[in-house]
Every structure is written in C-alpha cells, then in structure tokens.
Design brief:
Helices cover 46% and strands 13% of the residues. The protein has 16 helices and nine strands. The protein has helices at residues 3-7, 24-33, 55-62, 70-75, 88-97, 112-116, 127-140, 159-168, 192-200, 214-224, 233-237, 241-245, 253-270, 275-285, 296-305, 309-318, and strands at residues 12-15, 39-41, 45-46, 76-81, 102-107, 144-150, 173-177, 205-208, 228-231. It has an eight-stranded parallel beta barrel with strand order 1-2-4-5-6-7-8-9. α5 (88-97) links the parallel β4 (76-81) and β5. The radius of gyration is 19 Å and the shape is globular. The termini are far apart. The mean pLDDT is 96. The chain binds flavin mononucleotide. Flavin mononucleotide (FMN) is lined by residues 16-19, 21, 43-44, 79, 106, 108, 148, 177, 189, 208-211, 231-234. Residues 16-19, 21, 43-44, 79, 106, 108, 148, 177, 189, 208-211, 231-234 line the site of flavin mononucleotide (FMN).
Length: 319
C-alpha cells in the first residue's frame, strides 16, 4: 500500500508550493494563524547538474526551523525540481540522509528555461526520461515520494500513460493540476483528469486547479472522488480558507488580510531583511485577497504604487 495513504485523511487540504511565496517564514506564519491546513509545501529546490548541494544550503532553503517543530515537519512536504541530466542520485542521497520525511518532485513547472533543460513539465512529454528520473528518485528516497503534474505537455494524449509510468515507478501519491503545460494558466482547470486518474490508479490522488471556495472544494471532491485537494492561488486569496473549510470561519476578509500582512511584515523585519525586499514580498501577497472588497482594485493599485513600508501600511490602515 502507498505510504501516503496512511497519512492522508480523506478530504485533506494542501497549501500548494509557490515559488517566491512559500518560504519557511511564510509557512510558519500560516501554520500559526491557520493550523487547520493539513499539509503545507515548500517551494522547489533545484537539483544541480553538477556537484552536490551543501547541506547548509538545503537547510536554508527548506527552513531549519522545521527541525525544532515536529508538528510542522510532519505536515510539510519538500519539493524539488530537476531534469534527467541533473546530478540526481548523489543530491538525493544527501537530501534523504537529512531526514526530510516527504519529497515531492515538480513535474508541472512550465518555464521555458527549465523545459529546455529537460526538466519540470518537459518530462511529461518524454516517458522514457520520466521513468528513468522516477526510478532514481524512488531508489534514493526512503520516505514518502510524491509527484506534482500537469495533465500533459502539448496536449492530454499521454495522460493515462503518464499515470501508469508514475504508479509503476513506486511513487506514493500524485497531485494533478488539470491543465497542460501549453495552457499555462489559461481557461479553467479541467477536473475530469482527476476523476480519470482515480479510475485508472490505486494511488492517492490530490486534485488541484481553480479551487477558490469551500463550494469548489466540495464540488471537486464529489465529482472526482479525489483523496484530497490542493489550493494555490485560492490559498493566496484566502489563507484562512482552512478555517472556513473546517467550519470555523475567519473574521472579515479585510481584518484577516490586515492581520496577516502586518504579522508577516514583523517576521521579515525580525529576520533582518531589507525594506525593499520586504515590500516586494508583501506586494506579492496582495495580488488576490483584495479582489472581492469594495474598491479593492483601487486599494491594490495604490498598494502596488507605494514606495516604502510606511506608505504601504498607511494606505492599508486608512482603507
Ligand atoms: C506564484 C506561484 C508560484 C508557483 N510556484 C510553484 C512551485 O514552486 N512548484 C509547483 O509545483 N507549483 C508552483 N505553482 C503552481 C501551483 O502550485 C498550482 O499548481 C497552480 O497555481 C494551480 O493551482 P491553483 O489554480 O489553485 O492556483 C505556482 C503558482 C503560483 C501562482
């Protein structure tokens, strides 16, 4: 039986990996404010083509705080991005030896640079390469090994085959974003593929793509029978989604956003980050949560225009 099956309660909710957002300070804050999220993902660590990533860099990327917080460590999965000609085996031995309990392989990254190097979603178009990468991963990962995929590269013609190759390579769980690489974020994610994966695979399947509300969450589970769901942009829009989902609704969106941004600001200051990088990180977080507020678009525009933290928080408090 898949090792992940024991860990995942049906209906579990996953906070998606998001490059530039889900660093360890951010995840720690989410865990403190909204511990109802069942699982949190790190953003990806890129496996180098040559040499071995030093342990201290790996720890810095994934967050050394995790090793003093068992609860966080248990609910975190650690994502890596690689390609078929990277130095996978040696790097994975080091990563595995450091005791990360759950490694996830990013097979959805659409970036041209990554795909040209035969990494990320490229591997969904080349099943021989995919198989050989998965075998190296499985051989070197002693804990849970999951993959996060799109439904194909150019189109969906290989979808069933991809699922079979993944299952045949000893992967423990599959997260599916219902779009191809070529689609990027266009249109709406198609949950039919999640349903199809449940029909043809015995592995736990986590559905991802355009889940924004609790109603969406119920609807994808009813229509696909998936084992859990993952939210990316929906989680950025409502980090408190987990409270709503488990029946303990958060206070108003505006109060929640203000609290979340000001606490995050404090954590980044404590870490000694420069004002310019703190502002950049805060601006990344306002892309979605203000959208449904009256005059939210205007507020967002003014916040984007702010040149320093004082002005950012003045605008927010005045709203
Ligand atoms: C800002 C941003 C960064 C992302 N970075 C990653 C990443 O590092 N690894 C990954 O597997 N997916 C990444 N994704 C994709 C999301 O995890 C998710 O699969 C995708 O956004 C679809 O889900 P959604 O409709 O709930 O947003 C990223 C998405 C966004 C919006």
């Amino acid at each position: 039986m898949s090792k992940a099956r024991e860990l995942i309660t049906p209906g579990s909710i996953f906070f998606a990996p998001m490059e530039g957002v889900t660093n360890s300070i951010y995840r720690t804050l989410i865990q403190e404010l909204y511990p109802q999220w069942d699982f949190l993902a790190t953003d990806f660590l890129r496996i180098p083509h040559q040499g071995i990533y030093p342990e201290k860099h790996i720890l810095k990327h994934f967050g050394k705080e995790l090793f003093s917080n068992e609860e966080m460590k248990k609910k975190t999965f650690f994502q890596v991005l690689t390609s078929s000609n990277a130095n996978n085996s040696e790097n994975l031995k080091v990563i595995d030896g450091m005791g990360f309990p759950w490694i996830d392989l990013n097979l959805g990254c659409p970036s041209n640079t990554v795909c040209k190097k035969k990494g990320g979603s490229y591997l969904l178009s080349d099943l021989l390469e995919l198989k050989s990468v998965l075998e190296v991963f499985r051989k070197n990962i002693s804990g849970i090994f999951s993959v996060k995929i799109r439904v194909g590269f150019h189109d969906d013609s290989l979808f069933d085959e991809i699922i079979k190759v993944i299952e045949g390579s000893g992967v423990d769980l599959i997260i599916i974003h219902g779009r191809t690489r070529v689609q990027l974020y266009k249109g709406v994610a198609n949950w039919e593929y999640i349903k199809r994966a449940k029909e043809i695979s015995q592995l736990p399947i986590i559905g991802n793509g355009d889940i924004w509300t609790v109603k969406d969450a119920q609807s994808i589970q009813q229509s696909t029978l998936c084992d859990g769901i993952m939210l990316g942009r929906g989680a950025l829009k409502r980090p408190w989604f987990a409270r709503d989902y488990y029946g303990n609704p958060a206070p108003s969106a505006l109060d929640s956003v203000k609290q979340y941004l000001s606490l995050y600001h404090g954590r980044l200051v404590d870490k000694g980050l420069r004002e310019i990088s703190i502002l950049k990180q805060l601006k990344r977080l306002i892309r979605y949560p203000l959208d449904d507020l009256p005059r939210g678009a205007e507020l967002k525009k003014n916040l984007y225009l702010s040149q320093n933290l004082d002005s950012f928080f003045n605008i927010l408090q005045r709203y």
